[in-house]
Amino acid sequence: MGSSPDRRPPSADPAGGFAGGASAPAAKHVGVEAPPARAPGSVDEPVVEVVAGVIRDARGRILLARRTEGRDLAGLWEFPGGKREPGESAEAALARELREELGIEVELGAPLIAVPQRYPHKRLRLDVRRIASWQGGAPRGLDGQALAWVPPAKLASYAMPPADRPVVAALLQTDRYLVTPTPADDKAWLEGLQRALAAGVRRVQLRAPGLDAARWRRLCAKAIGLCRKAGADVLVNGDAALAAELQVGVHLRAAQLPRLEARPLPPALQVAASCHNAEELRMAEALGCDFAVVGPVKATATHPGTPGIGWSAFAALRERVSLPIYAIGGLAPADMAEARDHGAQGIAAIRGLWS
């Protein structure tokens, strides 16, 4: 598993809140020891089942709790929650934990994401739910833990255990990543991109293998204008020089990863990577990629006869790193809930998001 850099926790604020710590991508929740379950992709190693809640106040801030001394990863920040007891449902466990830890009675909202994560000494699955409402007054740290109400944009500056980085990404970033098809007709292709943006796509990889370079540069410039107007992130496939010229992100092909010794773009421009195995994911994380794409999960029309890896294998790769990861391969918006249940940021697709 790729390790997160050491980060100093935020310092106490006299008013009772906490100031942001050193900036770095977030990661996540550590459980205590928990009831054995079976890990995705494994038949012999138990998994710690952990539940956590996303609690917002009237100002939209999100509650974090600081791990107390004597626990593993003490001093790091996490979404409040804890372990599931044997025979206990995730919903009952989360309600109980928030009652015991914070003194509140909660109404659970929709699931957010379930993140499988491997640590050196254990494996866990972090099941995160939104909290629709609560009663009992302001949450209190009944176990002596510090609490902080954090604006969403500042979550990534808090030092967290590795499974939280995908949780923060699930809260803040889009769950749909469009990969464009190769254009046959430029006008029709731009119209197709406009339709996808109108349907809610907010992250786009511009990809057109084999297209004439001059034509592709002109088409990219027009596509970037459409994406920026819609407020969508844009990445260019494979060409870091073109990405830097156009001031957009780059999506690296898996074959490019071993040849790179450093992140090819500055932090202000996104870097992503296609990965197919644990080693490629480790390289992507070591380069400082902002997210990755893994698959194919299902068989695709572009690779007939090639079976997908399936969701269990996807989850087994997901637990090796703390990067946000999109699942790709034969997927459409209807697969979103299953993707999130296996730790995916969402889905990446050509046909499933283009048409």
UniProtKB/TrEMBL annotation:
Pfam family, one: NUDIX_4
GO molecular function, one term: 8-oxo-7,8-dihydrodeoxyguanosine triphosphate pyrophosphatase activity
InterPro entries (UniProt xref): Aldolase_TIM, MutT-like, MutY_C, Nudix_hydrolase, NUDIX_hydrolase-like_dom_sf, NUDIX_hydrolase_CS, NUDIX_hydrolase_dom, ThiamineP_synth_sf
Source organism superkingdom: Bacteria
Residue intervals of the Nudix hydrolase domain: 46-173
Nucleus keyword on record: no
Keywords annotated in UniProt: DNA damage, DNA repair, DNA replication, Hydrolase, Magnesium, Metal-binding, Mutator protein
Record-level GO BP terms: DNA repair; DNA replication; thiamine biosynthetic process
Residue spans of biased composition, Basic and acidic residues class: 1-10
Biased composition (Low complexity): 13-27
Cofactor(s) of this protein: Mg(2+)
Region of interest: Disordered: 1-42
Catalytic activity: 8-oxo-dGTP + H2O = 8-oxo-dGMP + diphosphate + H(+); 8-oxo-GTP + H2O = 8-oxo-GMP + diphosphate + H(+)
EC number: 3.6.1.55
Matching NCBIfam families: PRK08999.1 (NF006530)
Annotated family: Belongs to the Nudix hydrolase family.
PANTHER family: 8-OXO-DGTP DIPHOSPHATASE, NUDIX HYDROLASE FAMILY PROTEIN
Protein name per Swiss-Prot or TrEMBL: 8-oxo-dGTP diphosphatase
Source organism (scientific name): Luteimonas gilva
